[in-house]
Amino acid sequence: MPSTQFVIKEKYRYQNGFNSYHESEAIEGALPIGTNSPQKPPYGLYAEKLSGTAFTAPRHENQQSWLYRILPASNHSPFEPRESSSSKTDQEPSAQEKFFQIPNQLRWDPFDMDDTVDWVNSLHLVAGAGDPVMKTGLGVFIFAAGKDMDSHEAFYSADGDFLIVLQHGVLDIQTELGRLLVRPNEICVIPRGIRYRVTLPSGPVRGYILELYQGHFTLPELGPIGSNCLANARDFQAPTAFFDEDTSSSWTLLSKFAGRLFAAKQNHTPFDVVAWHGLYYPYKYDLGRFNTIGSISFDHPDPSIFTVLTAQSDHPGTAVADFVIFPPRWLVGEDTFRPPWYHRNTMSEFMGLIGGQYDAKEGGGFQPAGASLHNVMSAHGPDASTHEKASNAELKPVKVGEGSMAFMFESALMVGVTEWGLKQCAKVQADYSEHSWGALKPHFKRPSN
């Protein structure tokens, strides 16, 4: 599987490379040569700097881009609060606590499709930890939309980077820096502050979002693995410059700021960037290109070998967020219980299923578009039927996960659940624990002597 065989064919061109310095111009000569902010940029454009990190961040962490646009992004009316009757991007104002911290194992039935709302109005905060105001932690969202965003509307989040995991449908995303087509089995990252508009060329969409309030995603270190495998840098795709010329129409700019929605008006398109260069841009990645590794003798390594992207805390090796996948793969371990072992983890694990059946949960309760949360030190592992099957299976080489893709948002933080995620969505499985592990039986036998 060198790449996913998509039903919907690609229609845009991209630049390849993770954290590569890219430059792109929709009109030849729009990029200044040898300078970032000339007195008069080419073609009467405005130079604008987009900073994703502090100016003085270490060079290897620094993420900035220069945009050359028809009008500056600052040219809009004051933002005003905008309420949404459908989305829940923040905690309930009346809640005494930001999140419900729960040690129980939680699992959700598939979240409903919703044909009546667009991208922004479909966002529902399910779980999270930390605070976007303090730029700490993360939020986990579910989205389910059935309509294009208004043709004169754009959105951005000031709270963090959106890692979008599409489960159903197709996303056509027009960003300030160019266009991205995102299909199931692809992920997309839209960094904090970048403005974009979402249309749905194949009808309703549904999926998951990890919003990173703290830092940015990087590729995990490979250590003794060497220089290749897992997600290779060349397989990440960034957009090429694409612009609209409109300085007379009324546009609405929506902002998610400290979890709340705000709206401003402007009389020009936000998508007027004719050229750009830098390190701060949206990108996408085909999960089918993930080069999986594993044991070829006995036992199996920790699931960290399935990490696609990570966002490290200030303690090396401990992540604010990891994005981990469980793709189709061969299992060959001798005298080995091949599914994940039973475990209690200092990390929190929020799992979702894009399609197929996850090989560690074959009992039927973990379904595509559903989710589970195993919080800090909450015990979990294979359900009873999976344990029975794996304990008695013939240990020949076998390929698991064909046609399946499960993923995990993992965090060192204690992840709480929102009022919407716990109650209002009405998707929490009350019998999850009993269904999964209630049928486990003791097999212990004392020695005869």
From TrEMBL:
- Which top EC class applies here? oxidoreductase
Gene Ontology molecular function terms on file: homogentisate 1,2-dioxygenase activity; metal ion binding
Q: Name one Pfam family in it.
A: HgmA_N
E.C. designation(s): 1.13.11.5
Q: Where is this region: Disordered?
A: 77-96
* An annotated GO BP: L-phenylalanine catabolic process
Q: Where is the active site?
A: H300 (proton acceptor)
Cofactors (names): Fe cation
Q: Where is the composition biased (Basic and acidic residues)?
A: 79-91
Lineage: superkingdom: Eukaryota
The record, for InterPro entries, names: HgmA_C, HgmA_N, Homogentis_dOase, RmlC-like_jellyroll, RmlC_Cupin_sf
Alphabetized Gene3D superfamilies for the sequence: Jelly Rolls
- Which NCBIfam families did the record assign? hmgA
Under which name does UniProt file this protein? Answer: homogentisate 1,2-dioxygenase
